[in-house]
Amino acid sequence: MINLETYGWNNRLDQQKQKSIHKALFHGRIAIVHRTCYEVVSEGGIFQCELTGSLLFGKSASELPCVGDWVIFQAFDDHKGIVVDMLSRERTLYRKKSGTVADRQAIASHVDKAFIVQSLDGNFNVRKVERFLVQIGEAGIEALLVLNKADLRFDKEPIDEAIEHLVHRMPVYFTSIHQPQTIRQIGESISRGETVIFVGSSGVGKSSLVNALCERPVLATSDISFSTGKGRHTSTRREMVLMDNMGILIDTPGVREFGLAIDDPDSLTEVKEFPDIAESCRFEDCEHINEPGCAILEAVNNRTLDRKVYESYIKLRREAWHFSASEHEKRKREKSFSKILEEVKQRKADR
């Protein structure tokens, strides 16, 4: 018998289940998403489940179950089952689906903390950190920054300068799998029953970091590539792991591109060090681009605000605005199409 409280089950989720017409069935949490089925952790063990037709064809791709979702399922012999319902999502991390204009991809749900992993082997990029931080903040998830491979020789001063505008937003950890005390610091920040996710680019050492954190080999790792000197991409799927005496960890494949999928471009000012400065803008709805009396533009001009930080903000804001506008138009078209379908059905009924 598996105690689902160790996987994050609580009274609030139980109250949701009691409102479902399927409340008499089993419930569980999505641990792994395969192409056509889901591995669901339940009190009775791990079940291989598929979706009912109404779920499979009645939801958009971003609404289909992802790792971390809680579902209700009909169990059969041989630990197989059919997912018949999903509980409401909370704190879901999305990204823009590659190759699309306004499609979201759900990465993980019911996440409490997100560790943004960067490596100190020459691949550090503060702009990528900002990008992850924006999306994590949109989801209402607590962000933490992990600067990995700290055993390598690196110049700490420029790193500190690069993240100066972010340190008040989240804790920063310098880690190395060869320095156990640095890994323990991360473990101490994770409470029992909390769900945490590790995100970052390929080759930053996430899988090795997870194994060191769990003190056992739970994820496959690769050696450093001799041709590039970088870590090879290891994880190929999102996977949930239960950590001893800690919480629940979700590992994700490294990403080359992490497109923003946020509805409110104005929320970007919260990620940067802008809020205090923005209060001095002449107009409350100032977009900080070319408005007269903009305190942020003035701060850039007098060099109290780093121009690179500001330019990154503008780039992310344009991207977020483009997604938001495209998403709005898509929803508008879908609503119009649904209305047409209803009218067609009504005409047939009236005949």
Structure description:
By secondary structure, this protein is α/β, with parallel strands linked by helices. It folds into 3 domains: 83 residues, Beta Barrel (OB fold (Dihydrolipoamide Acetyltransferase, E2P)), CATH 2.40.50; 159 residues, 3-Layer(aba) Sandwich (Rossmann fold), CATH 3.40.50; 76 residues, Orthogonal Bundle (Ribonucleotide Reductase Protein R1, domain 1), CATH 1.10.40.50. It has 10 helices and 13 strands. A 6-stranded mixed sheet has the order 10-9-8-11-13-12, sandwiched between helices. Strands 1-2-3-5-4 form a 5-stranded mixed barrel. The relative contact order is 0.11. About 4% of the residues have low confidence. It holds the Pfam family RsgA_GTPase. It comes from Parapedobacter deserti. Belongs to the TRAFAC class YlqF/YawG GTPase family. RsgA subfamily.
**Contiguous runs where pLDDT drops below 50 for at least 5 residues:** 222-235
Query: The biggest beta sheet, please?
Result: 6 strands, mixed
Give me the strand/helix succession. Answer: HEEEHEEEEEHEHEHEHEEHHHH
Rounded to an integer in angstroms, the radius of gyration calculated over CA atoms is 23 Å
User: What value does the average pLDDT take?
Assistant: 82
CATH architecture of the largest domain: 3-Layer(aba) Sandwich
User: Whole-Å distance between the termini?
Assistant: 56 Å
The helix-and-strand class reads: alpha/beta
Shape descriptor: globular
Helix fraction, binned, reads 25-40%
| Number of separate strands | 13
CATH class of the largest domain: Alpha Beta
Beta-strand level of the residues, as a percent range?
Answer: 15-25%
Number of domains: 3
Strands of the biggest beta sheet: in what spatial order? Answer: 10-9-8-11-13-12
CATH topology term of the largest domain: Rossmann fold
**Helix count, per DSSP?**
10
Domain EngC GTPase: 109-256
Subunit structure: Monomer. Associates with 30S ribosomal subunit, binds 16S rRNA.
Cofactor: Zn(2+)
Keywords: Cytoplasm, GTP-binding, Hydrolase, Metal-binding, Nucleotide-binding, Ribosome biogenesis, RNA-binding, rRNA-binding, Zinc
